[in-house]
Amino acid sequence: IPIQMAEVAPMNPSSPLPIQNRKCFFIQRDYSKGLTVSWSTEFPTELVRVIDERSWVSFIKELNERFAVADKITARSVMETFLGLCTCYIFHPCTRSSYEIHLEDISDYIDDVNEQVFNSRGINVCNPMEQGMRVLEVSFLFAEKDKPPKQPPTLNNLGIVPRI
């Protein structure tokens, strides 16, 4: 699902921050639906002037859906488990599991959205697999002075912001 960013003007920062000076915040994993990997679609206040709410919620929903597909028990995942047990897990290094394939797809999705949408807005969403799937880390790429000017309030509840 492509995310379109028409409401907020892209940033034109002078220089990216060094890694040690970057600010970030974390979105905790949502355990309200059990142990399935998912994150809350609630819009973080840290992103109010950076990205529009619809794009963020769309990204989180798609991410949650992809993790749900990866966690689904299928005939292939059952067969992979059975073959692993029968071969004392010698089978597993010989092939990639369907779960690993889905995780790679999720990683590619996050990289694509970062490249196409988020990085131009001055944020980067880190792959949750790097944090043990406990949190979703969102890093600000540029200094506070390089952020775009404050936008006027929205015209309606659709999040449409007038251009200045």
UniProtKB/TrEMBL annotation:
Domain Golgin subfamily A member 7/ERF4 as annotated: residue spans? 25-137
Compartments (UniProt record): Endoplasmic reticulum membrane
User: Pfam families this protein is in?
Assistant: Erf4
Q: How does it sit in the membrane?
A: Peripheral membrane protein
Record key words, sorted: Endoplasmic reticulum, Membrane
One of the GO BP terms on file = protein targeting to membrane
Top-rank taxon, per record: Eukaryota
Note whether Endoplasmic reticulum occurs among the keywords.
yes
Q: What Gene Ontology cellular-component terms does the record carry?
A: endoplasmic reticulum membrane; palmitoyltransferase complex
Per the similarity annotation, which family is this? Belongs to the ERF4 family.
On assembly, the entry states: Interacts with ERF2.
What is the recorded name of this protein? Ras modification protein ERF4
The organism encoding this protein is Pristionchus entomophagus
